[in-house]
Design brief:
By secondary structure, the protein is mainly alpha-helical. It has five helices and no strands. Helix 1 (4-33) packs antiparallel against helix 3 and helix 3 (83-110) runs antiparallel to helix 4. Bound molecules: hydroxy diiron-OXO moiety.
Length: 158
């Protein structure tokens, strides 16, 4: 049986994942407005993935006999100074999520909650991949600099 503390922490994290989905959808909207359809599409997919992450928590909480308690979703930022700023904030956000997942794993281990620990391992791996993907795009943006042609190419690639 999962502890109340663990259940509360999982419910809080469900909210973090849904907020991530909302944040990335806001970033998608920012790029739609700039007619950068490739970047917009990339963030729309990230948004869908984050919603699915939230749903994994929803499913696991139910499966283990806990109750899902949904909380308010904070309003995301709607404007950024530059494309680079959007990706730097995405990277910072993913690192924040990684830290939260690590904390949940630590709590599950401390409580000898092996089922929750096992469930969280998928997210541990996923975070490594997500951070690496964002870092790769940031590297490309650094190479491109102010080159409009490079930006056009990257938009197409995404
Ligand atoms: Fe990109 O964060 Fe979900 O897990």
């Amino acid at each position: 049986m999962m502890s109340k503390k663990m259940l509360d922490a999982l419910n809080n994290h469900l909210n973090e994942e849904v907020y991530s989905s909302y944040l990335y959808l806001s970033m998608a909207a920012y790029f739609e407005d700039k007619n950068l359809k490739g970047f917009a599409g990339w963030f729309r997919i990230q948004s869908q993935e984050e919603y699915m992450h939230g749903m994994k928590f929803y499913g696991f909480i139910n499966q283990t006999g806990g109750k899902v308690n949904l909380k308010a979703i904070a309003a995301p930022k709607t404007n950024w100074k530059s494309i680079m700023e959007v990706f730097e904030e995405t990277l910072a956000h993913e690192k924040h999520i990684t830290a939260l997942i690590d904390k949940l794993v630590g709590q599950a281990m401390q409580e000898k909650d092996y089922a929750t620990n096992n469930f969280l391992q998928w997210f541990v791996n996923e975070q490594v991949e997500e951070v690496a993907n964002v870092e790769e795009i940031i590297n490309k943006l650094e190479m491109i600099g102010d080159n409009k042609g490079g930006l056009y190419m990257l938009d197409r690639e995404l």
